[in-house]
Design goal:
single chain, alpha+beta, 4-stranded mixed β-sheet, 12 strands, 53% helix, disordered N terminus
Length: 708
């Protein structure tokens, strides 16, 4: 989801930046990702080493997880991974369990070993990366002291909120809390100027909600009404844990739901947020004052310590207009209650067990269907990666990602770019004028492999073995200031939006870059001992996916330098939109459960990227095999292995609650549909498995979606 600004603001809360990811990450789903699939993958004790002679069948496509009782032309998903799906039920601590999770667990243990050793080394040099990650992890693991403290570490902040006397002090406290990672009222940070991508300006985005999305407050179906009731009960329970009596807590919860509903009603939908042309509104100070007469931007900039801000990209002006009105109309005591709630809501996972359990009850059990909380050490590994990802990542790549792995991955990226170059030169629906600019954009792609060339400096982040929640809040402060320090300065194009161990990849349209962390450059995506067909079906499709994001329905609106600029002829834009509509309708047709369908419009960018990525990977494979006659492996031809490799990376079992959350909030389709959608559009798939028109996996030529 390219420049999805609500998502961007959420990621910046964790220092992750703006990304178009391969795998779901956003709103509450970011917690799933960070808890289970964001911290890399390796086979235990294994880095990506030089190829060694071995049985080809032991690498690449996994024959043992296939269910050959299924027919590939009818149920390719289960044909490819049926045995895996049957033998891998969802563990109680997860809302979903797939190949990403499975592989992440292997790597999590390696990070666990690094952190245990760092925590045991109490003599690490003060201020060193090892001291910081060791102390952070140790403070997180100190459950005895965390439970003894309860909510006391927040007492000073509660006192400040309770002491607010007027509107000016209210706005000052909102600014203060935002700086500590509390998502009160709206989000603010730095962003690239989308029409001058070499510069960084301020960025203001809608926010201030406790549930995952505006639609949770506005939908009128029975399930949404039930969730709102459960949310209100959850807020009340949190207030009782914070010291309020039951009657007061219930009244406070009701006022929170009413206030957040006003903010939600004024918010853009997720589909609207996907359109960068609708979310770019660069404003100077005079325009900001006119937009929000009841909110003082001058005082806000003073409070956050950056009075030099003169330009802000306001993603959702109507939200800020409504926010200004709501500020005036809502009693001061209600706002104080609101700030107390968001302070507790933002910090609950870092407080005592009673807070953690209630936070999990709503965000885990109710919203995602998860049965139990992850073990503490897993949560602490994830938290350290989130706050100190490049400090931990430096040690990780030294141990488990050798230089030759980076070189081989770069070679595959180069081959994939060559395939897209050839494709752009021959697209029958694209004019020479647009084609020329598309080739310029492709040539300008920045390729980032494995880990940054310049590591993040954490010297300004103070970490100790004191209260864990304070380490977290100081981490948020560090990141908030780091982001604001960019404003008014040239863009640093060396920055990364993910830590090196992350099992994911991304495209950033404003940077025009494709990024592949070390964590994903491992089996089953990329295995140096596997055949070309398996590697191109796995990692090749991943690379192609991110490259295609540069030309999907959002990415195509940015030029080679990352500027929001229309470089398409009207006729070419029309041709593209017609082809994209085919993809949208295809996903709209997929039934998730009961009357719930996939949201083709929300998922369009990721679906286009899947389709383009798989097509490009197939063409790159044909080039790699030119002049060769690959022998069958396990009775499977090279083309069959290619499509099986692609489908197998998407094997996943999902809880019904998680599916509903994903469809409501995330621009990535569910994995089971990603595994079959793109292959069903490719005649090469039908030839590989001898499918006939009318088979579920052989879409009729007239209904076939073809873009790249």
């Amino acid at each position: 989801m390219s420049p999805f600004k609500g998502f961007q603001a959420y990621l910046k809360r964790f220092g992750l930046g703006t990304v178009s990811t391969l795998w779901p990450i956003g709103t509450v789903a970011v917690l799933v990702f960070l808890a289970s699939a964001s911290i890399g993958l390796l086979r235990a004790g294994q880095g990506l080493s030089a190829p060694k002679p071995s049985d080809p069948a032991a690498h690449g496509v996994e024959l043992s997880i296939m269910d050959k009782t299924c027919k590939p032309c009818e149920d390719f998903y289960h044909y490819a991974s049926g045995e895996w799906l049957a033998k891998n039920p969802i563990p109680a601590a997860y809302p979903s369990w797939g190949r990403f999770n499975e592989l992440a667990e292997r790597n999590r243990e390696l990070l666990h070993q690094i952190l245990e050793a760092s925590a045991a080394n109490t003599k690490a040099a003060a201020g060193s990366n090892e001291q910081k990650i060791g102390d952070f992890y140790a403070s997180c693991m100190d459950e005895k002291d965390i439970d003894a403290a309860g909510g006391k570490p927040l007492d000073a902040e509660f006192a400040r909120i309770n002491g607010i006397q007027n509107e000016k002090e209210l706005q000052e406290e909102i600014a203060r809390l935002q700086g500590m990672g509390v998502q009160a009222l709206f989000s603010f940070g730095s962003t690239q100027d989308e029409k001058n991508s070499s510069q960084v300006i301020g960025g203001a985005d809608q926010g201030g909600l406790g549930m995952p999305d505006r639609d949770y407050y506005t939908k009128t179906d029975d399930k949404s009404k039930q969730l709102r009731q459960q949310y209100e009960e959850h807020v009340a329970k949190m207030f009782t844990l914070a010291g309020d009596d039951g009657a007061k807590a219930a009244s406070e919860a009701k006022s929170i739901l009413e206030l957040e509903t006003k903010l939600a009603t004024a918010s853009l939908t997720r589909v609207e947020l996907r359109d960068p042309e609708k979310t770019y509104h660069k404003m100077g100070r005079a325009e900001l004052r006119t937009l929000t007469p009841n909110w003082s931007w001058e005082n806000y900039f003073q409070e956050i310590g950056y009075t030099n801000i003169d330009s802000v990209d306001v993603s959702a002006p109507k939200f800020f207009e409504a926010m200004s009105v709501t500020l005036k109309e809502t009693p001061l005591d209600t706002w104080k209650t609101y700030l107390r709630w968001h302070l507790v809501n933002s910090t609950a996972p870092y407080l005592s067990s009673s807070f953690v359990d209630e936070d999990f009850n709503f965000n885990g059990r109710i919203l995602q269907g998860t049965k139990e909380l992850l073990p503490r050490w897993k949560r602490c590994v994830t938290a350290t990666d989130r706050r100190l990802g490049e400090a931990l990542g430096q040690i990780y790549v030294q141990k488990y990602f050798p230089p030759e792995a980076k070189a081989r991955a770069l070679e595959m990226v180069t081959n994939m770019m060559a395939a897209l170059h050839d494709d752009l030169q021959t697209l029958p629906w694209m004019s020479p004028e647009t084609r020329k600019q598309a080739l310029v954009k492709l040539a300008a792609f920045t390729r980032k492999i494995g880990y940054p060339d310049k590591w993040r400096d954490y010297s300004a982040y103070s970490v100790d073995r004191g209260p864990y929640v304070l380490n977290q809040m100081r981490g948020a402060q560090f990141n908030f200031k780091r982001e604001l320090n960019k404003i008014g300065k040239p863009v640093d194009r060396t920055e990364w939006g993910m830590s090196p161990p992350t099992v994911n990849a991304y495209y950033n349209p404003e940077m025009n870059e494709i990024v592949f962390p070390a964590g994903i450059l491992q089996p089953p995506f990329f295995d140096p001992n596997a055949d070309d067909a398996s590697n191109y079906g796995g990692m090749g499709a991943v690379i192609g996916h991110e490259m295609t994001h540069g030309f999907d329905d959002e990415g195509r609106k940015f030029d080679a330098q990352g500027n929001l600029k229309d470089w398409w002829t009207p006729e070419d834009a029309k041709n593209f939109d017609e082809r994209a509509l085919c993809v949208e309708k295809q996903f709209d047709s997929y039934v998730v459960q009961d009357d719930l369908h996939e949201n083709g419009k929300l998922e369009l960018g990721e679906s286009i990227a899947d389709l383009g990525g798989l097509n490009l990977a197939y063409r790159a494979l044909q080039k790699a095999e030119k002049g060769k006659t690959p022998a069958p492996i396990g009775g499977l031809t090279a083309d069959q292995r290619f499509f099986l490799s692609y489908s197998q990376i998407w094997a996943s079992n999902d809880r019904p609650e998680f599916e509903r959350l994903m469809v409501n909030t995330n621009p990535h389709p569910l994995a089971r549909f990603r595994a079959i959608a793109s292959p069903s559009n490719m005649p090469e798939f039908s030839r590989a498995f001898d499918c006939k028109e009318g088979d579920p996996m052989a879409r009729p030529a007239a209904a076939r979606c073809v873009i790249w």
